[in-house]
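Per your request, structure below.
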C-alpha cells in the first residue's frame, strides 16, 4: 500500500511517500480502506520529536481518518465489510497512523459514519470534535445559560467548542484575528466575537460579562492566568489543553479566593467507552447539519509533507494562512 511515513523525527521534509506492507487486523481489530485523513497539531509535534514518543519504524503519521471497512478480525461484532467508519487516536501510544491507503484500528475506537456526512467531514471533525465534547460535557459539565469564553473560535478545536456550547444551551464569547474569521464565528453561533488585533479583549469581556464568565477554554500555549482569573465568575472553571512546555506564572491567591477550578485533560487518554459517547452526539449533530466542520485546505497523499508544513506554519508561527482543518484525500 502507499503511505506517508517517517524513519526519523524532524522537520516536514523527513516525511516520505512510498510503499509499505498492507496491515492485517488482529483480534478485536478492523482494517479500513482510508478515504480521507486530517492533520492536527499533535501530528506535527510527534513527527518533529517535540513530543517524545516510542514510534515504530517506519512510522505512518496521522491521527484522524474516515473510510470503509475492508477486513475484520476475530471477536468484532458491530462492524461489517463495506461499512463506512471514522475514528481518531491512531498514530499515538504505539499505533500506526492514518496517512496510508489502509490502516488497522481497534474496533472500540471506530464509529459509523452517517450516510449524509462525507468522509472529509468525518475525518476533519474527529480529534477536534471529541476533544471539544470531552471538555464541555465530561470535564466542565457545561449547563444551559452558562457563559463560555474561548480564544480562537474559528480554529479546529475552537470552532467545535463554539458550536457545541451553543448546542448545549450556553452563551459564547470568542476571539478572531480578522473580520472574515469573526464572521465565521458568528456563523457558528457566537454571541460576541472580539478581534484580538483591533479590540481590547479584556474590556470587551468585562463589558459583556460584568459578573464574569462561567467557563474559560484556553487554547493559547502560554495562558495569561492573571487576566483569566480576573474575568472568571466566582466558582468559574478554566480548561487548559495546550502548551506542554509552558510554565506561566499563576496567581494562587485570586484563584482560590474566587473558588475557581482549573481543568487539564488530553483527549487520547479518555477510555474508548467515553469517546464512544462523544461520537454518538457528534454523529447526530453532523447528520442534522447542526455541527459543521471548516475545511481550510486539501492535499493528496503524496503531499503530506506540505500539509504538515502548512499546519506548523499556522500553529507555531501564527502565519494566519489557514481557516479550518487540513484534509488529505487518499
Amino acid at each position: 500500500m502507499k503511505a506517508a511515513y517517517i524513519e526519523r523525527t524532524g522537520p516536514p521534509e523527513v516525511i516520505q511517500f512510498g510503499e509499505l506492507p498492507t496491515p492485517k487486523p488482529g483480534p478485536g481489530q478492523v482494517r479500513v480502506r482510508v478515504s480521507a485523513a486530517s492533520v492536527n497539531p499533535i501530528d506535527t509535534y510527534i513527527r518533529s520529536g517535540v513530543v517524545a514518543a516510542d514510534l515504530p519504524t517506519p512510522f505512518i503519521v496521522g491521527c484522524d481518518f474516515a473510510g470503509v471497512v475492508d477486513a475484520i478480525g476475530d471477536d468484532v461484532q458491530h462492524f461489517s465489510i463495506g461499512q463506512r467508519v471514522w475514528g481518531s487516536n491512531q498514530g499515538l501510544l504505539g499505533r500506526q497512523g492514518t496517512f496510508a491507503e489502509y490502516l488497522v484500528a481497534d474496533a472500540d475506537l471506530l464509529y459509523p459514519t452517517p450516510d449524509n456526512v462525507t468522509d472529509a467531514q468525518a475525518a476533519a471533525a474527529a480529534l477536534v470534535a471529541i476533544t471539544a465534547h470531552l471538555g464541555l460535557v465530561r470535564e466542565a459539565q457545561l449547563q444551559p445559560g452558562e457563559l463560555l469564553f474561548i480564544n480562537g473560535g474559528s480554529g479546529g478545536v475552537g470552532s467545535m467548542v463554539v458550536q457545541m456550547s451553543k448546542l448545549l444551551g450556553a452563551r459564547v464569547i470568542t476571539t478572531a484575528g480578522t473580520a472574515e474569521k469573526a464572521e465565521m464565528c458568528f456563523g457558528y453561533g457566537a454571541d460576541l466575537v472580539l478581534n484580538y488585533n483591533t479590540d481590547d479583549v479584556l474590556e470587551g469581556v468585562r463589558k459583556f460579562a460584568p459578573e464574569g464568565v462561567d467557563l474559560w477554554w484556553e487554547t493559547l500555549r502560554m495562558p495569561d492566568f492573571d487576566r483569566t482569573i480576573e474575568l472568571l465568575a466566582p466558582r468559574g472553571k478554566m480548561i487548559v489543553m495546550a502548551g506542554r512546555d509552558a510554565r506561566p506564572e499563576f496567581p494562587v491567591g485570586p484563584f482560590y479566593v474566587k473558588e475557581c477550578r482549573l481543568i487539564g485533560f488530553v483527549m487520547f487518554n479518555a477510555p474508548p467507552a467515553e469517546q464512544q459517547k462523544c461520537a454518538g452526539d457528534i454523529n447526530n449533530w453532523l447528520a442534522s447539519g447542526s455541527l459543521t466542520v471548516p475545511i481550510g485546505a486539501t492535499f493528496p497523499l503524496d503531499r503530506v509533507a506540505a500539509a504538515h508544513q502548512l499546519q506548523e506554519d499556522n500553529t507555531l508561527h501564527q502565519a494566519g494562512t489557514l481557516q479550518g482543518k487540513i484534509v488529505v484525500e487518499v
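The chain has two domains: 2-113+294-329, 127-267.

Regards,
D.
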